[in-house]
Design a protein that fits this description.
A hairpin with a 2-residue loop joins strand 4 and strand 5. The two termini are 53 Å apart. The longest helix is centred in the middle third of the chain and has 79 residues. With 409 residues, the chain is an alpha+beta fold. The strands form 2 sheets. The chain has a 5-stranded mixed sheet, with helices on one face. Strands 1-3 form a two-stranded antiparallel ribbon. The chain contains 13 helices and 7 strands. Helix 6 runs parallel beside helix 8 and helix 11 packs antiparallel against helix 13. Among the domains are: 141 residues, no CATH class; 141 residues, Heat Shock Protein 90.
Length: 409
Amino acid sequence: MKLSLLAGSPPSSGPLVEAHRKLRAPRAVAGLMAGALAVALLPLISGVSARLEVTLHDTALAMGVFAIVSLAAAVVFWRRGATPAYWRLCALETWTTALTLLSLVWASGNPLSPFWLLFACLMLTVAMEPSGRVIEGLAFVVAPQVLALLFLLKGEPAKAAISAVIGGVVVVAATVLRGLFVGLTEARNERDRLRAELAELRLREERHRISRDLHDGLGTELASLTWTARTLHQRLEGSPVQGEVAHLLERLRSGMDELRTVVWALRAPARAWEDVVARLAQRCRELGGDREVVVEASAADPSAELDGQAALDLVRAVQELVHNAARHAQPRCIRVTLRCEPEGIHFRVEDDGRGLAHGALEQSEGGLKNFRARVEGAGGTTQVESSSQGTRVSAWLPTPTVRHNMSMQ
């Protein structure tokens, strides 16, 4: 009987609600009802009734009340979920269970009745919950005192004292156990936090190492090839193959730019929004060539930082659009608009060029197809509008902006 003991406002979702979803599952409820039925029928077992000093009427009444309240809580959860009404029924269930179990002690007239064991088990089980609600915890403090008061009013002070002592011992034991459990839970949480920080630190170091190797190794090779291609292009002036060498040189320069962008993203696990915008503006103007490129950016939280991979996805997606527009649309102006929100990035690239040819989207094998695949692969959405006055491509990228002060210098 794992009941909720929430402090503050009851939740409508979260780990505790999922725990109650399992608790209120048909199989779990059936098991609970079977247990209540077994307790109710104990007096029918030969010799047990005399040992427990209760009758079938006593156990059936107590377990019947408990079963009705528990079933009502399960039905409310099935029909409405974790509503405030459900949490009130949980509190009522806890109180009902505590009082009905001790009513069997009262019915037996024996303050040392074995039914105290069921009461203690319920108390200890509830104490193991990660959070507690005072109104439910009070059930285990008040119920034994009610039993002691009944014995005292009946003129049996010894039984009253025994009941009060047993109830106090159970409460103290549950309190100590709860303190140990909470301490253990906090220690585990701290351990998990430290492990996560260590894994993050190792990831930063690995990213930094990879970026350094790319820059010093592949970057150096590409720079050398670019210099060789430039020299060869100059020597072949007027030659029929000069155009092919020029194309090769352009591809090498593009590769160098892409490598610089990857290294920029890898060197820090997170990038400030202003840093991302500055990098984007630089790349867009480089790709725009002699076209006018305007970059406008805003953010709900200017101090937000983007995950390194998310920043790379954004830069690549936008630069793909700018490069595509500058190369194919023949525009006078390319405008890039970005808006950083907590849930992601909204961006738009529009030009005043000649627009897309009919069926260009379906037939695209490069720019727009790559762009769509990149954004949709990251869970985003895209929209393309085109006419003879130009093309507008809008997109949303679910970029997390929750990391702060994570950059590696």
